[in-house]
Amino acid sequence: MPSTEAVIAKRFNNLLRPLQVHINRATVLAGELAAMHGVDVEACELAASTHDLFRSEPDFAQISAAEKYGIPIGDIETATPMLLHGPIAAAWLENEAGLTDSRVLQAVRWHTFGWPEIDDVGKILYLADKLEPGKVNADPSLEPIRNMAESHPDQALLKLLQMRCDAHLERELEVHPFTLALIENLKSS
Question: Which tens digit of pLDDT belongs to each residue from 30-65?
Fold first, then answer.
Protein backbone atom coordinates (compact mmCIF):
# COMPACT_ATOMS: atom_id res chain seq x y z
CA MET A 1 0.00 0.00 0.00
CA PRO A 2 1.49 3.38 -0.99
CA SER A 3 2.28 5.89 1.74
CA THR A 4 0.18 9.01 2.34
CA GLU A 5 3.01 11.07 0.88
CA ALA A 6 3.16 8.92 -2.28
CA VAL A 7 -0.61 9.14 -2.84
CA ILE A 8 -0.53 12.93 -2.41
CA ALA A 9 2.54 13.28 -4.65
CA LYS A 10 0.84 11.29 -7.42
CA ARG A 11 -2.21 13.56 -7.31
CA PHE A 12 -0.03 16.69 -7.19
CA ASN A 13 2.11 15.56 -10.14
CA ASN A 14 -1.01 15.28 -12.31
CA LEU A 15 -2.03 18.91 -11.74
CA LEU A 16 -1.45 21.60 -14.32
CA ARG A 17 1.87 23.39 -13.89
CA PRO A 18 0.41 26.83 -12.92
CA LEU A 19 -1.57 25.21 -10.11
CA GLN A 20 1.52 23.34 -8.92
CA VAL A 21 3.43 26.64 -8.85
CA HIS A 22 0.67 28.32 -6.82
CA ILE A 23 0.58 25.42 -4.36
CA ASN A 24 4.36 25.49 -3.99
CA ARG A 25 4.41 29.25 -3.35
CA ALA A 26 1.57 28.95 -0.84
CA THR A 27 3.41 26.10 0.91
CA VAL A 28 6.59 28.15 1.28
CA LEU A 29 4.64 31.14 2.63
CA ALA A 30 2.66 28.91 5.00
CA GLY A 31 5.89 27.54 6.44
CA GLU A 32 7.33 31.03 6.86
CA LEU A 33 4.20 32.43 8.53
CA ALA A 34 3.85 29.37 10.76
CA ALA A 35 7.46 29.71 11.94
CA MET A 36 6.98 33.44 12.62
CA HIS A 37 3.87 32.84 14.73
CA GLY A 38 4.81 29.64 16.54
CA VAL A 39 2.31 27.47 14.68
CA ASP A 40 3.02 23.86 13.69
CA VAL A 41 5.09 24.35 10.52
CA GLU A 42 4.66 20.77 9.31
CA ALA A 43 0.86 20.91 9.63
CA CYS A 44 0.69 24.28 7.86
CA GLU A 45 2.93 23.15 5.03
CA LEU A 46 0.93 19.94 4.62
CA ALA A 47 -2.33 21.88 4.51
CA ALA A 48 -0.92 24.31 1.96
CA SER A 49 0.59 21.57 -0.19
CA THR A 50 -2.77 19.78 -0.46
CA HIS A 51 -5.40 22.53 -0.37
CA ASP A 52 -5.90 22.83 -4.14
CA LEU A 53 -5.49 19.20 -5.22
CA PHE A 54 -9.00 19.31 -6.72
CA ARG A 55 -9.11 22.99 -7.74
CA SER A 56 -8.93 22.41 -11.48
CA GLU A 57 -11.53 19.66 -11.74
CA PRO A 58 -14.46 20.49 -14.05
CA ASP A 59 -17.84 21.29 -12.52
CA PHE A 60 -19.34 17.85 -13.20
CA ALA A 61 -16.39 16.17 -11.46
CA GLN A 62 -16.71 18.50 -8.45
CA ILE A 63 -20.40 17.61 -8.11
CA SER A 64 -19.72 13.91 -8.59
CA ALA A 65 -16.91 13.85 -6.00
CA ALA A 66 -19.02 15.81 -3.51
CA GLU A 67 -21.82 13.29 -3.92
CA LYS A 68 -19.35 10.39 -3.56
CA TYR A 69 -18.07 11.74 -0.25
CA GLY A 70 -21.46 12.89 1.05
CA ILE A 71 -20.51 16.56 1.01
CA PRO A 72 -23.54 18.86 1.19
CA ILE A 73 -24.00 21.02 -1.89
CA GLY A 74 -25.63 24.34 -1.02
CA ASP A 75 -26.87 27.12 -3.26
CA ILE A 76 -23.46 28.79 -3.38
CA GLU A 77 -21.75 25.55 -4.44
CA THR A 78 -24.50 24.72 -6.94
CA ALA A 79 -23.93 28.09 -8.60
CA THR A 80 -20.13 27.64 -8.55
CA PRO A 81 -19.19 23.96 -8.12
CA MET A 82 -15.46 24.81 -8.02
CA LEU A 83 -16.09 26.02 -4.47
CA LEU A 84 -16.40 22.35 -3.48
CA HIS A 85 -12.70 21.74 -4.13
CA GLY A 86 -11.68 22.28 -0.48
CA PRO A 87 -14.21 19.89 1.05
CA ILE A 88 -13.46 17.36 -1.70
CA ALA A 89 -9.71 17.61 -1.10
CA ALA A 90 -10.22 17.12 2.65
CA ALA A 91 -12.46 14.09 2.09
CA TRP A 92 -10.00 12.63 -0.41
CA LEU A 93 -7.06 13.21 1.94
CA GLU A 94 -8.88 11.41 4.74
CA ASN A 95 -10.41 8.57 2.73
CA GLU A 96 -7.90 7.92 -0.05
CA ALA A 97 -4.59 9.21 1.33
CA GLY A 98 -5.17 8.14 4.94
CA LEU A 99 -4.52 11.56 6.47
CA THR A 100 -5.76 11.81 10.06
CA ASP A 101 -4.62 15.26 11.29
CA SER A 102 -7.94 17.02 11.91
CA ARG A 103 -6.25 20.47 11.90
CA VAL A 104 -4.98 19.90 8.36
CA LEU A 105 -8.27 18.39 7.19
CA GLN A 106 -10.29 21.33 8.58
CA ALA A 107 -7.89 23.90 7.11
CA VAL A 108 -8.08 22.28 3.66
CA ARG A 109 -11.86 21.81 3.89
CA TRP A 110 -12.57 25.47 4.62
CA HIS A 111 -9.64 27.31 3.01
CA THR A 112 -11.89 29.03 0.47
CA PHE A 113 -14.37 30.52 2.95
CA GLY A 114 -12.79 30.28 6.38
CA TRP A 115 -14.96 28.98 9.20
CA PRO A 116 -16.23 30.49 12.44
CA GLU A 117 -13.97 28.46 14.77
CA ILE A 118 -10.87 28.76 12.58
CA ASP A 119 -7.69 27.57 14.30
CA ASP A 120 -4.10 28.70 13.76
CA VAL A 121 -3.41 26.15 11.00
CA GLY A 122 -6.53 27.33 9.17
CA LYS A 123 -5.52 30.98 9.54
CA ILE A 124 -2.04 30.32 8.17
CA LEU A 125 -3.41 28.37 5.20
CA TYR A 126 -6.00 31.03 4.40
CA LEU A 127 -3.38 33.77 4.48
CA ALA A 128 -0.79 31.77 2.53
CA ASP A 129 -3.29 30.78 -0.17
CA LYS A 130 -4.52 34.31 -0.75
CA LEU A 131 -1.23 36.17 -0.20
CA GLU A 132 1.38 34.02 -1.93
CA PRO A 133 3.76 36.05 -4.14
CA GLY A 134 1.98 35.31 -7.42
CA LYS A 135 -1.29 36.69 -6.12
CA VAL A 136 0.36 39.75 -4.56
CA ASN A 137 2.17 40.45 -7.84
CA ALA A 138 -1.14 40.18 -9.70
CA ASP A 139 -2.90 42.45 -7.19
CA PRO A 140 -0.53 44.92 -5.49
CA SER A 141 -3.33 46.05 -3.14
CA LEU A 142 -2.62 42.80 -1.25
CA GLU A 143 0.95 43.85 -0.38
CA PRO A 144 0.05 45.77 2.82
CA ILE A 145 -2.04 42.82 4.01
CA ARG A 146 0.84 40.46 3.19
CA ASN A 147 3.16 42.63 5.31
CA MET A 148 0.59 42.79 8.12
CA ALA A 149 0.39 38.97 8.15
CA GLU A 150 3.97 38.85 9.44
CA SER A 151 3.21 40.78 12.61
CA HIS A 152 -0.58 40.71 13.07
CA PRO A 153 -2.05 37.63 11.39
CA ASP A 154 -5.55 38.04 12.85
CA GLN A 155 -5.73 41.65 11.63
CA ALA A 156 -4.44 40.59 8.22
CA LEU A 157 -7.00 37.80 8.08
CA LEU A 158 -9.83 40.19 8.98
CA LYS A 159 -8.71 42.76 6.39
CA LEU A 160 -8.40 40.08 3.71
CA LEU A 161 -11.81 38.59 4.51
CA GLN A 162 -13.44 42.01 4.47
CA MET A 163 -11.79 42.84 1.13
CA ARG A 164 -12.98 39.59 -0.40
CA CYS A 165 -16.46 40.04 1.07
CA ASP A 166 -16.70 43.55 -0.39
CA ALA A 167 -15.60 42.25 -3.80
CA HIS A 168 -18.31 39.58 -3.70
CA LEU A 169 -20.98 42.10 -2.76
CA GLU A 170 -19.87 44.48 -5.54
CA ARG A 171 -20.32 41.65 -8.04
CA GLU A 172 -23.67 40.79 -6.42
CA LEU A 173 -22.44 37.37 -5.33
CA GLU A 174 -23.58 35.66 -2.17
CA VAL A 175 -21.04 35.60 0.66
CA HIS A 176 -20.72 32.27 2.44
CA PRO A 177 -22.25 32.36 5.94
CA PHE A 178 -19.03 30.90 7.41
CA THR A 179 -17.09 33.86 6.01
CA LEU A 180 -19.50 36.32 7.60
CA ALA A 181 -19.40 34.48 10.93
CA LEU A 182 -15.59 34.41 10.89
CA ILE A 183 -15.48 38.16 10.20
CA GLU A 184 -17.75 38.78 13.19
CA ASN A 185 -15.67 36.51 15.41
CA LEU A 186 -12.46 38.28 14.44
CA LYS A 187 -14.01 41.69 15.03
CA SER A 188 -15.10 40.70 18.52
CA SER A 189 -11.81 39.11 19.58
Answer: 999 999 999 999 999 999 999 999 999 999 999 999
Per-residue pLDDT, 174: 87
The reply to whether the predicted model has a pTM over 0.90 is: yes
Closest CA relative to residue 25, chosen from 156, 138, 148: 138
The number of domains in the chain is: 1
Q: Decide if 67 contacts 85 (C-beta within 8 A).
A: no
Q: What is the CATH number of the domain that holds 22?
A: 1.10.3210.10
32 by Cβ neighbours in 10 Å (0-12 / 13-18 / 19+) ranks as middle
Q: What share of the chain is helix, strand, coil (3-state, %, to 5)?
A: 75, 0, 25
Asked if residue 120 lies in contact with residue 35, where contact means CB atoms within 8 angstroms, the answer is no
